[in-house]
Specification:
The strands form 2 sheets. This protein has a 4-stranded mixed sheet with strand order 1-2-5-4. The chain has a two-stranded antiparallel ribbon with strand order 3-6. Strand 1, helix 4 and strand 2 form a beta-alpha-beta unit. The termini are far apart. About 15% of the residues are buried. The longest helix has 23 residues. It is about 40% helix and about 15% strand. It is α+β, with helices and mostly antiparallel strands. The N terminus and C terminus are likely disordered.
C-alpha cells in the first residue's frame, strides 16, 4: 500500500470549535493574500518577488507568485522548506513552531507517478518553514540506538 493511501484512511481527529475557528481564520487569511497578489500587475509581482531572494532548502528558486506569497507572509525569510524537506536536509522544525508561510505546489497524481501526464494540473497549499524555525537533527536525540545482541554459546 502506498503512503498516500495510508494517510487518507487514517481517522481524522475532531476539531474543537476554537480549532475550527482558527483554521477558518487561517484559510481566510490565505485567501486574502492570494486575492491581493492576483490583483497586482505582473510588473508589481516581479518587483515584489525581486525584493526577496528566497530559495527552498533544496536550492530551487520560487515562482513569482510563490515568492509574493512568501513576501506577504514572512518578508524576512531566506530559505524555506516543508517539514519533510527539512528532515531530508538533516534539520528538524523546532517543537511548537507554526508554519511561516504557505505556498502553492503541484499535486502529484497516480498517473504522473506512472509517467502519464494528466490533462489538468492541480495545486495545493503546503505549509513551509523558514530556516530560523529549524535546528540541526542530532543522530541520537530522541532516538534509541539498538545495540547488537551478544552471542551466547
Amino acid at each position: 500500500m502506498q503512503q498516500s493511501n495510508r494517510i487518507s484512511r487514517r481517522k481524522q481527529r475532531t476539531l474543537t470549535p476554537a480549532q475550527q475557528a482558527a483554521t477558518e481564520a487561517r484559510r481566510q487569511q490565505l485567501r486574502d493574500v492570494a486575492k491581493m497578489i492576483a490583483a497586482l500587475s505582473e510588473e508589481e509581482r516581479l518587483a515584489l518577488a525581486a525584493r526577496l531572494s528566497v530559495v527552498t532548502c533544496e536550492g530551487r528558486s520560487l515562482s513569482t507568485y510563490n515568492a509574493c506569497m512568501v513576501a506577504s507572509g514572512c518578508p524576512d525569510a531566506t530559505i524555506i522548506g516543508g517539514f519533510q524537506q527539512w528532515r531530508r536536509q538533516g534539520r528538524q522544525v523546532r517543537k511548537g513552531e507554526h508554519s511561516a508561510v504557505s505556498i502553492w505546489v503541484p499535486k502529484t497524481t497516480r498517473e504522473q507517478e506512472n509517467g502519464i501526464a494528466p490533462d489538468d494540473r492541480r495545486f495545493v497549499l503546503v505549509a513551509m518553514f523558514d530556516i530560523r524555525q529549524t535546528e540541526e537533527l542530532s543522530m541520537t536525540a530522541g532516538t534509541h540506538v539498538m545495540e547488537k545482541p551478544h552471542a551466547t554459546d
